[in-house]
Amino acid sequence: MTTTESDLALRLRVEDLYAEYAHTIDDDRLEEWPGLFTERGVYRVTTRENYDNGLPLAMVYCDGRGMMADRISALRTANIFEPHVYCHMLSAVRVLSREGGIIRARCNFSVLRTMQEGETMLFAVGRTFDKIVEDGGRLRFAERLCVLDSRRVDTLLVIPV
Amino acid sequence: MSSASAAVDFAWPFEDTSRAPFRVYTDADIYALEQERIFQGPVWNFLALECEIPNPGDYKTTFAGDAPIIVARAKDGAINAMLNRCAHKGALVCYKPKGNVAEFNCVYHNWTYDLSGNLTGVAFRKGVGGKGGLSDEFEMKANGLRQLRVETYNGLIFGTFSDETPPFVDFIGAELASNIDRVFPKKLKVLGYHCQVLPNNWKLYAENNKDSYHASLLHVFHNTFGVVRPNMGGGVKISDNGWHHLSYTQRESLGDEVVAKEKVRSLQEQYKLNDVTMMEHKLELGDQVTNAIQTVFPSLVVQQILNALAVRQIQPKGVDRTELVWTILGFEDDDADMQELRLRVNNLVGPAGLISMEDGCVGGWVQRAAKADPEAMTIMPMGGRAIEASKGSRITEAAVRGFWKGWRECMKV
Ligand SMILES: [Fe+2]
Asked: Which whole-number Å values give the CA distances from B167 to A138, B53, B74, B77, in the listed order?
């Protein structure tokens, strides 16, 4: 891909989407999280073990904003867990291709989890594989696949990574 | 492996198993004795699935308690299990989780074993230039990998260290074996794995699975979305010796007034799902059972939650850490729609499971509180003191009392 000004502009917009995604979760504005996806967007969290072996299982599988909203309302009203917050660290953002209106991009992430007592641990490390589209005058995820290297999940995973 | 016995000064402090001392969750000596008397005692440890090692030379590594295990398929198709520890310096013979090999080779000093664990080669056995090497008294035959006795049942592979363990069906009883027939009636396919670290003693998770009482109280998602309500039919079955259990629910109404009286915290009728596809259930096992949780003492859970089928293996990792390995299953003949349905319903289970995630944290809360007073006791009074089946109600701790009966019998305390 030759670098043109518009490639750079696109990359900045993708980076901005990634940061907005991280801040939405880290600020506990989880009700806004489904809005970062298209209406029929897909969100999945899996492990490198499953991904590399071609196994289809996901730990979290949301097909459309409705399922994402269900996850969040369950987190708010039904699920029991010790309060905690995430801090996302993103790096190695790259736009891989832009074809037929679909932008393929990826980044590396680590998620630091801080429990209510103030103890922080490295909770998740992995890569995202994303399909991003123009939707309603902005970029949104048509698909976000989070592949965890850290396949041992400590205690539970309730907040989306 | 008998060093632990002498060190433990422990007597069961109550007349039956309706109470248990918190010390059992926190005492490292008890943990060590459990390895010897339970996991290496008269039990069948779940090790792997046949479909994970379909071809000769396929192997997978796992654990039976603390003990690292290799499960392998030999050239004749037989399944072997052996301790993953070289007879020489004790290094892991297989340090990769799975693979296909003609023989096992310990990379440390290049000792080789066949697929049954027999020692077949020692590097520089004759030394070099007539010097060094093994003396004549060394017996190859006596220095294989320690082998476990293996049985398979409907695609599940079990291993035992003990000569006393009865055949698997006798071990769990015909009634409970029939649930494995029911849930796994045909060739299985692995859809994926989860691994969840529980910040608690392994027994707290083992008990949790037998505790049918907590299901509708802790896992509020059940009631909120109507997956399982106390008014659904079902019951608890327990093996004759008390060690193993099955808790199940099926669609038959007992009347809503039962629920109302108990004022279940979670009954929020206004709470609806935007998308109900993850709750869809295609009846596939020839009955109306929606949920069936079965335990095989000490460390296996067989799970049917709607169409989410799984085995969960409990791996103790020290007195206050447990790894829970979920193997999520479908059938080899699932079509694309059926697989998609399973992947959706699997949102309910696993480390992020909408009806299972709480089990990841409650054990840790007990573990933290147990430290304070190890001689105090947890009480298990629901359903009286007996260890007996119940039909129509799951509001009982009978199966938990059965777990402790099995624990005491193995531990000889
Ligand atoms: Fe539970």
From this structure: 64, 22, 22, 20
Domain assignment present for B166: no
Q: What does the alpha-carbon distance between residue B314 and residue B296 come to, in Å, rounded to a whole number?
A: 11
Residue B320 pLDDT > 50, yes or no? yes
**Average pLDDT, integer, range B99-116:** 97
CB contact under 8 A, A151 and B195: yes
Chain A residues touching chain B at CB-CB below 8 Å = 45-47, 49-50, 55-67, 69-71, 73-74, 77-82, 151-158
- Alpha-carbon distance of B76 to B57, in angstroms, equals 10
Q: Chain B contacts of A151, Cβ < 8 Å?
A: 193, 195
Q: Say yes or no for a CB contact (<8 Å) between A154 and B193.
A: no
Residue B389 has pLDDT above 80, yes or no: yes
CB A109 within 8 A of CB A126: yes
Residues B141 and B261 in one domain: no
pLDDT tier for residue B224 given thresholds of 50, 70 and 90? confident
Q: Do A57 and B358 touch (CB under 8 A)?
A: no
Dump pLDDT digits (tens) for B241-289: 999 999 999 876 444 434 444 444 444 455 678 888 888 889 999 998 9
Domain hosting residue B61, numbered range = 45-151
Model pLDDT, residue B273: 83
Nearby residues for ligand 1 (ion, Cβ within 5 Å): B 359
Question: Which of A50, A153, A154, A159 best tests the B interface by mutation, with the highest count of B CBs <10 A?
Answer: A153
Distance from CA of A72 to the nearest CA of B (A): 11
Residues 6+ away with beta carbon under 8 Å from B31: B201, B316, B318, B319
Which residues in chain B have Cβ-Cβ distances shorter than 8 Å to A74?
Answer: 221, 224, 354
Predicted confidence (pLDDT) per residue in A77-121, tens digit: 999 999 999 999 999 999 999 999 999 999 999 999 999 999 999
Q: Do B346 and A58 lie within an 8 Å CB cutoff?
A: yes
Residues B216, B251 within the same domain? yes
Its ipTM equals 0.96
Structural domains in chain A, sorted by start = 5-148 (3.10.450.50)
More confident residue, B135 or B79: B79
B214 CA from centroid of ligand 1 (Å): 6
The total of structural domains in chain B comes to 2
Residue B5 belongs to some domain of the structure: no
